[in-house]
Amino acid sequence: xxxxxxxxxxxxxxxxxxxxxxxxxxxxxxxxxxxxxxxxxxxxxxxxxxxxxxxxxxxxxxxxxxxxxxxxxxxxxxxxxxxxxxxxxxxxxxxxxxxxxxxxxxxxxxxxxxxxxxxxxxxxxxxxxxxxxxxxxxxxxxxxxxxxxxxxxxxxxxxxxxxxxxxxxxxxxxxxxxxxxxxxxxxxxxxxxxxxxxxxxxx
Length: 203
Fold this sequence. Notes:
The protein is mostly helical. It is built from ten helices and no strands. The protein is globular.
């Protein structure tokens, strides 16, 4: 469920964010790409560190913290984004959300495949990937409904009016994902499963 909600929050937020820079701020595609770099480039630095951290403290706390940070970053973004807002006001919440997803995305995938016997890891990976795809569709559909109920593409102001509640919805999806991540097996249980003989895992 955490993979589903993580993807729902991430992709719906990206869907909204790039349009905000173009429709509400008047930026072109190239400038928009540069402006979202604090969000999208963060995994290059943070994801490897998150992997090392999860090996030390377990996957659950890293997943929960990552989803919380992503949710808080998206809620913060929804609160400050308005027509004509200075870019530095948007950059900090983008970084917070980027750090969050950089922690949650690889850890969630690892938790999914390590929860089953080695012979079932391929199936677990496939199920996780499918949940992510369904989450993407669900998230974009949900925020589109929220956006249409509050704004439209007619003007920068009308786009910003729909953007704020729609982006807040993405943030809430991530926070719900943090709650579901609490159900991930703790570090001791995960280590016990990984060291258990294959005959016991299959039973």
